[in-house]
Design goal:
It is a single chain. The protein is built from no helices and 10 strands. The protein is mainly beta. The strands form 2 sheets. A 6-stranded mixed beta sheet has the order 2-10-9-4-5-6, with no helix packed on it. A 4-stranded antiparallel beta sheet has the order 1-3-8-7, with no helix packed on it. The relative contact order is 0.33.
Length: 114
């Protein structure tokens, strides 16, 4: 079973940037499609970005052009570069397998506020 530990969150002003990291443990990481999700207070968890083993990426409309997902299979790590952050990006961010319904980690809090 693959497990994930997210890091890199914090408090940032509107317009700022953050880079999230997700370290995976277990085997088979390189064959999995991976994704970043987020859950804002009072809202359902939503898919933010995904990346397949070959590198093709997809993004939610709300983050297109601002966020970039990438992966390092050798280090079993997934990244989320977030630029031009706004207050609506405030949420707990999680990484997991694409399409996952369980196996969630602790997540990392991102707060965008002036």
């Amino acid at each position: 079973q693959v497990q994930f530990v997210e890091s890199g969150g914090g408090l940032v002003q509107p317009g700022g940037s953050l880079r999230l990291s997700c370290a995976a443990s277990g085997s088979g990481f390189s064959i999995y499609a991976m994704a970043w999700y987020r859950q804002a207070p009072g809202k359902k968890r939503e898919l933010v970005a995904s990346i397949i083993p070959g590198g093709s990426r997809n993004y939610a409309d709300s983050v297109k052009g601002r966020f970039t997902i990438s992966r390092d299979n050798a280090k079993k790590t997934v990244f989320l570069q977030m630029n031009s952050l706004n207050t609506e990006d405030t949420a707990v961010y999680y990484c997991n397998l694409y399409g996952a319904t369980n196996g969630w980690g602790q997540g990392t809090q991102v707060t965008v506020s002036s």
